[in-house]
Protein: Growth arrest-specific 7a
Amino acid sequence: MSSTASKLDPDRQLPSSGQRSSCYHKGLNYLTNSPKKADRCSSRTKNGKFPDTTNTPLRNLALCRKPPGSVSPAKRQINEVKETKTTVNCVTFPLPGEGPEQQLLKPNEWSYCDYFWADKKDPQGTTHVTGFEVLLQKQLKGKQLQKEMAEFIHERIKIEEEYAKNLSKLSLSPLAAQEEGTLGEAWTQLKKSLHDEAEVHLKFSNKLHTEVEKPLLTFRCDNFKKDLKKYDHHIADLRKQLASRFAGVEKARKALADRQKDLEVKTQQLEIKLSNKTEEDIKKARRKSTQAGDDLMRSLDLYNQTQSKWFEEMVTTSMELEKLEVERVEWIQQHLRQYTTLRHETDMFNQSTVEPVDQLLQNVDPAKDRELWVKENKTGEVRPVDLDI
Amino acid sequence: MSSTASKLDPDRQLPSSGQRSSCYHKGLNYLTNSPKKADRCSSRTKNGKFPDTTNTPLRNLALCRKPPGSVSPAKRQINEVKETKTTVNCVTFPLPGEGPEQQLLKPNEWSYCDYFWADKKDPQGTTHVTGFEVLLQKQLKGKQLQKEMAEFIHERIKIEEEYAKNLSKLSLSPLAAQEEGTLGEAWTQLKKSLHDEAEVHLKFSNKLHTEVEKPLLTFRCDNFKKDLKKYDHHIADLRKQLASRFAGVEKARKALADRQKDLEVKTQQLEIKLSNKTEEDIKKARRKSTQAGDDLMRSLDLYNQTQSKWFEEMVTTSMELEKLEVERVEWIQQHLRQYTTLRHETDMFNQSTVEPVDQLLQNVDPAKDRELWVKENKTGEVRPVDLDI
Structure:
């Protein structure tokens, strides 16, 4: 599987590590961005996949506590900063028009691996369905339809058997069995031809069973659904892991924000010379802030590693499902073709059941039949003569 | 009818009047022949057609009364005389090897009119069946067989209707109706093709009804049996008349025999001069004997006229029945041919129901179906990117 994935240009599927900003002093942006994020998070919580850790009262507090009118250098920075990514259900996407242009992994192929990255609301709109589940549903439906086709063929088989039964029963009927001569022979053959027809239809139904119904029924019988479940669990586990890793990131961000606020407060105290021992405090606060920044970077790395693992599994597995669907369609096509072939055969063989009847009908000859009958039933050919004394 | 009869050479079918012996003085033969005739008559009486008028006690008496050893000139004549004809059930035939050689009326045709002149014992051997009744039985049986063939076709029609009903019912089944794309189109057409097949078989059963069953059923429906009865009664009446005419002949023969015996007695009395007034008696007896001879000739004429009328009716009617049988065989042949034609059509039309399915199966394309499905079901093609601060 991973081999399939490695075929893809990693730079196109995931940003190179070079793109990763490691300057956590931009961390300030985060603070003011967080409400925006919070909106997304609150919408996110609808699917109840994981708790929203960004929209805590504490954070709001931090925002409200700022004295009105005061404009910090951080604030100035904010206006220059622009959001370039969005995280939905813990998966991070570039915003429209942001980041490097994405080419399709398999252009012009309408490959599953290119079109099922986002989750979608399910019909009831209460929960979300992942793109991968949509692919799985397609597989399960395909399996079901294939089973229904087999059922249909089975019904056809029963109809053919019934028809054959009735034909061969009628062919044994004694009706007009006493017809004699060449006409009698033609009639006997006509009755026999019904038995031959019955044979043709019986053969048809038998072949339908072995060459169409069974293959449709047994194709991917047992293991298929197990395999799908395996895929499903594997991908779902990665999504769970992704969620907890994202929670870790959020937690680290909050810690960093607290540290930075503490540093900011201490810096102001230094400016207004409130105490003399602040130099020491600022050093200590900066060290703690740096520490929090490193923690955030680590949790970001963990998150991104998981997301890229999920990404690779999505690509390889969806391409596997794509292959399975191609096989299903071709398998069904092949066996429905077998159906039409058998139908054609049946019509051909049926033709041949009538030909001997045609032959004997050609030979029907009233004069010949009279000769046969007269020879068998004549009473006397000496004609009467006059009586005399 | 009579025109057909007149085509036949009367000399061949009946002895010319020239052959008739008008010399009733050979009447003597009759006397001594009569026991032989009596045998025939007694066998004749078995069929109870008319009473035996020749084997009366009186006749036996007449035979027994002859004084032993006496040989009359008549007796001498007898030995020269030879029987040339035999009368069975009142119909008179030449004895084997007697009379002019008979050619068939219609040589090499096995025509009914040449082979049904004699009566035959019926299976139980109790009564006789006339040759004409044998021909009538053939007609009635033919009618019955034709009716049975119609029944057989009717059964086939019911089978086709049932088959068509099941096929079109199945074609409406919702099974696998959700299959999509090119495969879905092919599947839908396959299901529809069952409805088309049903139509083909329904059309077959309808045509079987109008073009085979009905013609077989209605051919000579009502009048046929009436016509046969007419023929039957007509011929039977002539046979009855023939019987009574033959009784008349037998009676006249007996009367003549009595007269001749009386004459013989009187002649003997004259020889031995028993009385003188015998001359007168002999004249009187000879006149009466001549009178009885004329009566016999008249009744023979009546008998022969009736036999020749019966003969003509037998020829014309049996040739009519022969024509009817030829028509029946050709009619059945023609409509069984229609049956095979319809069967061939059905197979042809059936072929055509599968072709559109073949077409659409050709067009099945997994890539195309994926494109259609992806376009409809994709959740998002923007790929995830690394999260950063």
Notes: The beta strands of chain A are 85-88, 91-94, 120-121, 128-129. The first strand of chain A starts at residue 85 and ends at 88. The mean pLDDT of chain A is 81.
